Amino acid sequence: MMLLTITSNTFADFFKSGGLFMIPLCLALLVGLAAILYQILSLRRGRVVPKKLEHDLAGFSQAHTNGQLETTLAVIHQKKSVLARLAAVALRNRGKSRAEITHAVEAASRQESAHLHSGISVLDVIITVAPLLGLLGTASGLVTIFQGLGETTNHLAIAHGIAEALNTTIFGLTIAVPCVIAHGFFSRRIELLAAHMDRVLAELIIACEATSPKP
């Protein structure tokens, strides 16, 4: 209990010594955490490239020949994943040339890509802004300290004040580092999922070109 009290007091002193700049830094921390959580949820395999749908679309041409498309088409029309929405675009353009189908799918995929990267765009802002806010808070604190140098000769108090002024920089970097790691992880995951979709959609476009829509 005493340890918790000491820890809570330490954190309270840390934020208090940072001054007003701790407020926007705390907001940046909350926004960064929200963006990371959003990306974790939106980049789940089932939300982007479900394995079963990927397998079903890989055999689309054969299923069409055997008259076994009903289940796959039902899943596609529900549009609960990125792959399903892009596959629906390809199916709506069945019977057209490969270039026309590809153009339609690429146009839709650009919109889907923007949605997948929306959380990453927020992380980009936090990665840039958090350290700058920290440095701004430190600079502001140092200006206040140096202005009071003529009023005191207590070097320990001055050193303590400088250490406190650096708290905002520490906090800003503490926010930015996890966001940088998350940014790299999510970017790589989007690349891998996009590669899966490109392969499946390329085969689907060829199959759609060779088939005609149902009346």
Describe the model.
The protein has one domain. The chain is 84% helix and 0% strand. It is an all-alpha fold.
Which SSEs are present, and which pair or pack?
Blueprint: H1 2-18, H2 22-42, H3 45-48, H4 51-58, H5 60-66, H6 70-78, H7 82-92, H8 98-116, H9 118-147, H10 155-165, H11 167-210
At a glance:
This protein is mostly helical and 215 residues long.
The amount of helix comes to: over 70%
How many β strands by DSSP? 0
Reading the helices and strands in chain order gives HHHHHHHHHHH
Overall shape: rod-shaped
Count of separate structural domains? 1
Largest sheet: none
Q: Using only CA atoms, what is the Rg?
A: 27 Å
Per DSSP, the total helix count is 11
Head-to-tail CA distance between termini = 73 Å
Low-confidence stretches: 1-7
Question: Structural class from helices and strands?
Answer: mainly alpha
State mean pLDDT (0 to 100 scale): 79
Strand content: under 5%
Task: For the structure shown, list the relevant keywords.
215 residues, mainly alpha
